[in-house]
Structure formats: structure tokens, C-alpha cells
Amino acid sequence: MKKFFALVAVAVLVAFAAPALAANPFMDVPMNHWAYDAVSQLTSHGVITGYPDGTFKGNQPMTRYELATLVARALAVVDMDKASKQDVEMLKKLVVEFKDELDALGVKVDELDSRVAVLEDNLGGWKLWGEFRFDAKWAGESGQYDDEYTLKGDTEFDLNRYRLWISKQIDDNTKFVARIGNSSGNLSWQRYYVEMKLGYDITMTAGQWLFDWEDESGLYVDEDAWFTDITVKGFWFAKDFGMADVQAIVAHNDDRLVGDGDYMLYGLRANFNFNEQFRFALQGLAKSYDDPNGLGLNQDESVYWADFAFNFNPNIAFKGAYFVEDLDTAYRANEDSPKAFKAIVDVKQEAFGFTSLWLEYAKLDEGFNVWNANNAGDAFAYDAYGASVLINRNWDETDILFAYLTQKWNDKWTTFERYLQAEYDTTGVDDAKNWTFGVRYQHTPAVMFELSYDDVDWGDSTLAGTRTGDDHVVRFRTHVKF
């Protein structure tokens, strides 16, 4: 009986002592422990730098405290350009092994985990991310315009977008970025450029890149830019003067429309941030075509505009822009310097509590042409959901009323509504209307589902060549970012 109680006592002592021994940070780690091989590997790769004086203890055993200190230091100062995938995996194993010691040292393991996540995203200085959109569409039954909503039939399941980005931080002053994606059903390199710091706070971008000055000024929602939000090939310079930032563009681009020919693009922008309430910008873009088109017309054209934003408070702003075009040949209308303006009230949901509001009024003079709209002219402006609302515009004066509302109910659910009305000053052309409503569900931070209904009504136009009646589409989109 005494032996039995003695054995029980020994077992209890061992049971209680074992965790204490395991948790002792000053206990030597056996020389045959895998952690030594891990440290040796990371040291040879330049990831771990040893003690503060840069030395190691040779073949002498190390305590768990010492190894935990090396792990913490490695994660804090690891060279992104030298860390391989294997190095990152080894660091993760060491973090798990010495978690208790790291906690005892006051090192937050959560922060270490986030540091490891950053390393994984930037292996060897490279970063990879992407986007995937897949659409299912069901169109109206009329089917009188086969190209409406870019459909080839009443029903269509289609890959809307696939993009894969890669970037490399070459050094403190140079970064490489590229994007491969689907274009007309084929994969192509859509972006490839290098960003460089040249000194004197000047940055230069060289290659094929996208610029969007209208977005920088907050002049549109969805995909409704008039002139920018386009991809060009060339050079882009930027300098920040404090209260003002200045940008200059010199680029060369391929055909905008069939037969147009290549053109040079020159751009200049100066944006002035006077204070938190008021911002003002001046900018201009000029196209110079290499050769006239088949009609022998000089298509050189320029646009200059000023825009501003006045913030009544962080949630309510009034914005506006005034545009002037300069057409060397008035091949579109009798005007060679048509003008346009837009006025915008932008209210965030925080102001009303239940909805945001974007209210825009725009007026386009006779002959005024929107360049962008996916480089196809203003017939497809305001076509974020595929409806060619302005396709009946006959270069005459046009008034546009546009409203966009969103309601974010929680982190998962959002509803939205769009309405556009275009009034034409053209005999025989009826007003056009377009309205949209939909719901988005954020399934995970990376995955979003959207169900929307879009309807376009061109009215009862009698002018030859114009569209009449209405059409609609139901779209279910799966959107993944990774």
C-alpha cells in the first residue's frame, strides 16, 4: 500500500512538474532539436542575424528564451528580397514552437502572425493578387437589338473579367507592376510599367498604365468617366508641391476607332488643395493623330476643364466641372469648340443614416463628344450595367439627370439604385431613360455576389436610325478578389 501511494505521489509530481519544465524559458533546447537546423538554414539565407553583436554560440546549446529572441528579431528585420517561401514556412514553425516564450517576452504573437502574412504576400519582394468576375445574364424578350447589354442571345453565361497582378519592389526608388487579363476572350498583358522616384519629389511612370484624373477629383461613380479612366503607353510625371500636385503625360496610343489612326496624347494637371473644405484643379488633354482618317479630315482634338469640390462637412460635398473642347475640324457638328458642365451633390450614408445620394446634372453642347466610354464615344457613356442609353444622341444639345443611391445595411448586405434621364434637342428623338436596382451580398471579405435588374427605354423616336422601345436584363455576378 505504501508503495502504491508513493507511486501515485511521484506521478502527481511529474504531472505537475512537466508543464512547468516545458514552460521554463531558461531550459536548454536539446542539440538534436529541429529548431537548430531551422536557425542554421535561416542564418545561411541571411534571415537571422544572431545576437545583437551579430555572433552565435557555436555548438553550445541555447535556451528557449534565446531561440525565441532570435525568432522575434528575424520577423522584425527580415529582408523581403531574401525571404523565400521555405524561409517563411520555417519562421511560421518557429513561431508556433516558441509561442509561450514569445508571450513571456511580451511579444504579441498576433503581430508576428501578421508579419508572417506580409512576408507571404511579398515573397522575395514579389507580390501577387487578382480579380475574377463571372456574369449570368437573362435579357428581355424583344431581342430587337442583338448588341444591347453585349449579349449574343437572350441568355448568356460569360467570364466578365479575369485579372492577375504582379509587382516587384526592385529597390527603394523603383517598382515594377504588370497585369495580365482577358480581353475580347483572349489573355493579354494589359498593364506593364515601372514607377521610379527621380529626386526632388518627382516620380515617373513608364510603360502601359491607366490614369484617371476624373476619379482623383471624385467626378463620377461606377464606370462613368468622360475623358480619363483610360490605358495609354508612355511617360507619366508627377510632383507634389505641398498644397498643389502637378502631373504631366506624354503618350502614344493605337486606334481609338477603326480608321482613326494612331495618335499622340499630351496631358497636364494641377490640383490645388487649399484646405480640408476646398479643392480646385485645372487640366487639359490633347490628341495629335499621326495621319488623317480616310475622309482626309484632321481629327486633332483637345479638351480642357476645371473642377472643384467644396466639403460642407465630411459627409456632404458639392462638386462641379466645366469642359471646353477644341476640334481642329468640326467634323461632328457646326461647333469646333463645344462646351459642357456637370454639377454634383455627393452625400455619404453617414449624413442621412439610411442611404447615400449622388445627384448629378450635366449639359452637353451641340457637338460635344465624350472620349472615354471604353474609347467608343458618348453613345456608351453611363453604361455601367450595359445599356447604351445615349446611343440616340445626334450631336445635338443634351441634358442629363443622373442619380445613384446605396444603402449599406450591415457588413454583408447592400442595396443600390440608379436612374438616368437624357433629354435631346433633336427633332424626332425621344428622351431616353435608364434605371437599375440591385442587391449585393459580401459572402466573405474576398467573395461578393450581386443580383441586379437594368432597364433602358429609348421612347418612341421617329428619326431614322435611332432605337425605340425598351429592353432589360437580369444579371447575377460572382466577384472574387484574391
From TrEMBL:
Q: What keyword terms does UniProt attach to this protein?
A: Signal
Q: Which PROSITE patterns is this protein grouped with?
A: SLH
Q: Which residues form the SLH domain?
A: 22-85
Coiled-coil boundaries: none
Which Pfam families does the protein's record reference?
A: SLH
Range of residues in the leader sequence: 1-22
**The keyword Methyltransferase is annotated on this UniProt entry:** no
Task: List, alphabetically, the InterPro entries matched.
Answer: Cell_Envelope_Struct_Comp, SLH_dom
SUPFAM superfamilies recorded: Porins
Q: What is this protein called?
A: S-layer homology domain-containing protein
Source organism: Aminithiophilus ramosus
